[in-house]
Amino acid sequence: MSGPDVSVVICAYTEDRWEDILAAVSSVRAQSRPALETLLVVDHNQALLDRLDREYKETDEVRVLANAGPRGLSAGRNTGIAAARGEIVAFLDDDAVAERDWLRYFAEAYKDPRVLAVGGRTVPVWASGRRPDWFPAEFDWVVGCSYRGLPRGRVRVRNVLGGNASFRRSAFDAAGGFATGIGRDGDKRPLGCEETELCIRLSRARPDAVLLIDDRAVIHHRVPAAREHFRYFRTRTYAEGLSKALVARSVGADKGLESERRYATRVLPAGVARGLRDALLARPGGAGRAGAIVAGVLTAAGGYVVGSVRARRGGTTFQVPRVEVAARE
Length: 329
Description:
Helix 1 links the parallel strand 1 and strand 2 (about 35-40). The chain has 10 helices and 9 strands. The longest helix is centred in the C-terminal third of the chain and has 28 residues, at about 285-315. By secondary structure, it is of the alpha/beta class. It has helices at about 20-30, 45-55, 75-85, 100-110, 170-175, 195-205, 230-250, 255, 260-280, 285-315, and strands at about 5-10, 35-40, 60-65, 90, 95-100, 115-125, 155, 165-170, 210-225. Strands 1, 2, 3, 4, 5, 6, 7, 8 and 9 form a 9-stranded mixed sheet that branches. The two termini are about 15 Å apart.
């Protein structure tokens, strides 16, 4: 098939997601535009590594790798980047499945040589079968999904979202890999924003770069029952504040909070008004959604303050590694 070859990287860390991992790989293998390869990167879990090795030992297009860096999602992604043979490197969460044309829409966007990154739309699959009444769509990023307020169609953006994203290989030559010390680390506090920091760093290294989101490139992301509760919502929004403080430290508050200002001043007030209107109309969850938006803002702000203080005191560090990519065959 014409166009750039695409390597897909899926990072995994626990056997608890065994069926999800298999489903993620199957969705890649069923793409209308085939991937060159699927790279399964296992994060310091020998039992899972051995089990996946056995599962895919006779499947040429699936390679199983051990995370070659420190524990965490960023280092796992960097391991996949270094091993990838495709011109494009795409990332899929281990608890998500991609729609059949996911890679086709990604590949189409790279016909423009200025395009260095393309993200897609991530749809939540709630464990309970439906969105909790109180859970505002403006905060779907809490569960790793696209949220109300993102632009629709194929549009330029500051950053893509890491669980459904792709980059041209040359992007990593220009900007380095994902920063370690920002993103997820197994079951520890649910930090994030490593893809935001990378995208801002990329735009600085390559001012001509175009970064896109194409909402036709869809994946479906499983939301476990534990993440449907307000306790997780509060923990994740606080962690987001901590992460934003790290991003601001790396790239400056002007770029690090550029999109967040619009989100906080336009998208969220509209969400609160919508929730209050629904409450007045006796629609389920209206007051809860308005309250959750306010609580989410305050908790994230608290995390940002704490993270900023820690950063100034030197209590939190991160590194931006150079990624030596594999030679193409």
